[in-house]
């Protein structure tokens, strides 16, 4: 019996013959040329007719059988099945990414310098992880116990926070810790005070949780504590380096803030994102050091190693930590074991301290250079710490300046991006950490051209 179909096989390399054959049968069944019950040739006859090996015909039939297009048993022939299978929905392929245009040099703030090579400390930590099996079940939702203890020791030593493992919860970074805290401890409609200008991601998180964001002005020292009004359930604050203006909250204001929180019962959320880096100024301990019953402290690896690691920590009272851990257990959302285990090795071996020391030297030089180059064009603020400075440019359209810089090949953030309702001078927020030394020099040259009157 012949197949009564014009079957054509392309032997010049357009895919395996059995798949070509199967697709031609499928097409014929789909468009009705082969009807349910139609008897198909045996594999032997089909192979002969097409001059292919029998295994090709057999493989095509096996495939059609498995997909439900044909039926039949050995000996009694093969028929077109009377139940035509559902067609899978064909999705158009995802759009190819835009072709990369001219690469922008970036002076946007927030990302540390990450070398293209790895060093011995990094390799040691990951080697250690690679030779251990994972836990047999779920790890503790607050984080690996040994890592919680190591982080407690770390924040005690470098941030002056006297605490133990029961105060520590390992997070996927600041943003994750903040969202977790808001979802468990705040109610929609609660009022949260946030610095203005401030960290846009944190404001977005608060709004998405249904909180009412109350804008609080900042000055060159940071949050204006005297502006905190009544009925606030929480305050989000960056005391070690106000983001983005760079103020370092003085001791008197910290004490005033803690006294205010004790009086009102509000929670202070301390975002300690880049406190590892300060230059020629005395260290200020974390706000959390003053009162762990009132302050929830958020730390991150994003500025020290890389934001791609998605790892951070939250330090709070054991009650808050336990509530957050219980919630995480319900939703099954906490950082994976390999990253936690590697971070533990990095802390224990002193690798983190080593990277911080090394980066501090690098960033100090870059900060000096950046300030020296840009000083003639505006007022520099926030240069004592962190990975960025802010260049105030009164009476300028900072969005237009950033657009001109972009057109000239440099990405930089206009200060107006961070402002909400509190008026203040325009400017540029300039991160000096991300590029290579060479690219930083080039990018600053471009920026000077853009800023030149
Ligand atoms: C003010 C501030 N906090 C925290 C972070 C880090 O967030 P995460 O730890 O989620 O990467 C950043 C990063 O840009 C930041 O600017």
TrEMBL record:
Entry keyword set: Aminotransferase, DNA-binding, Pyridoxal phosphate, Transcription, Transcription regulation, Transferase
InterPro entries the record matches: Aminotransferase_I/II_large (IPR004839), HTH_trans_reg/aminotransferase (IPR051446), PyrdxlP-dep_Trfase (IPR015424), PyrdxlP-dep_Trfase_major (IPR015421), Tscrpt_reg_HTH_GntR (IPR000524), WH-like_DNA-bd_sf (IPR036388), WH_DNA-bd_sf (IPR036390)
Q: Which domain of life is it from?
A: Bacteria
Gene3D superfamilies in UniProt: Type I PLP-dependent aspartate aminotransferase-like (Major domain), Winged helix-like DNA-binding domain superfamily/Winged helix DNA-binding domain
Question: Has UniProt tagged this entry with the keyword Transmembrane?
Answer: no
Q: Which residues form the HTH gntR-type domain?
A: 15-83
Whether Transcription regulation counts among this entry's keywords is: yes
Give any GO molecular function from the UniProt entry.
transaminase activity
Question: Family per UniProt?
Answer: In the C-terminal section; belongs to the class-I pyridoxal-phosphate-dependent aminotransferase family.
Q: Tell me the protein's name.
A: PLP-dependent aminotransferase family protein
This chain's source organism reads Kribbella sancticallisti
